[in-house]
Amino acid sequence: MAPVAPSRLTFTPLHPTFGAECDGVDFSQLVHSDTIEEIRSALSRYGVLVFRRAQLDDARHVAFARAFGELDDSTPYIKAGRKHRLAPYTELFDVSNLDDDGELVQPDSLRYELGLGNTLFHVDSAFNPRRAGISILRAHELPPHSTGGATAFADTRTAYADLSETMKDSIQQTCQQAGHPARSQKPAGPGVL
């Protein structure tokens, strides 16, 4: 399938310093390279883009993501014997509250305890030697409004720019891997790790 002509995109800011809603991408076709470059530029400007009602399926999600570069492989993170519910797309990580049978993960399970780390601030894939440049999140089903499942984003670029030069120097001298899973999973599930 050949990409369609470039889309006419609009970006509506969601916050004074970062985040925008992007409209005008036709995800039913391969996204044209000019459109990808416009999205890449907008990501650089806004940091976070929201595509509402994108109607992406797994195959189109992977194709769209691949247009931005090399993808990770979730295979090493799937426990032996656990089904990958998004197979054959091992590039997609199943960050879900559903178990292998599509039922809600039980609060007394190891998977539930390990998943609690996702409820705290973290940086996706910060533990990988090749850092993720972009994370593309897609919800298959949203819970009812005000019942949980919200994803929050932080404008770390503006936060850093607003720091004093002394604090920036201190940060530059302190080498630590922010967002490592153990930093968020241990406080969230202290009995597990």
Strand content: 5-15%
**Helical region count?**
6
Domain module count:
2
How far the N terminus sits from the C terminus, by CA atoms, comes to 47 Å
What is the H-and-E element order? EEHEHHHHH
pLDDT under 50 segments (min length 5)?
A: 179-185
How many E strands? 3
Could you say which overall geometry the principal axes of the C-alpha atoms support?
A: globular
The chain-level mean pLDDT equals 81
What's the alpha carbon Rg, rounded to whole Å?
A: 19 Å
Q: Helix share of residues?
A: 25-40%
Main structural class: mainly alpha
What would you note in describing this structure?
The chain is mainly alpha-helical and 193 residues long. It has helices at 33-46, 58-66, 110-115, 156-161, 165-173, 181-188; strands at 10-13, 20-23, 49-50. It has 2 domains: 9-55, no CATH class; 70-188, no CATH class. The protein contains 6 helices and 3 strands. The chain has a 3-stranded mixed beta sheet. The longest helix has 14 residues, at 33-46. It is globular, with a radius of gyration of 19 Å. The termini are far apart. InterPro entries: TauD-like_sf (IPR042098), TauD/TfdA-like (IPR003819), TfdA_dioxygenase (IPR051178). Residues 11-176 form the TauD/TfdA-like domain. Keywords: Dioxygenase, Iron, Metal-binding, Oxidoreductase.
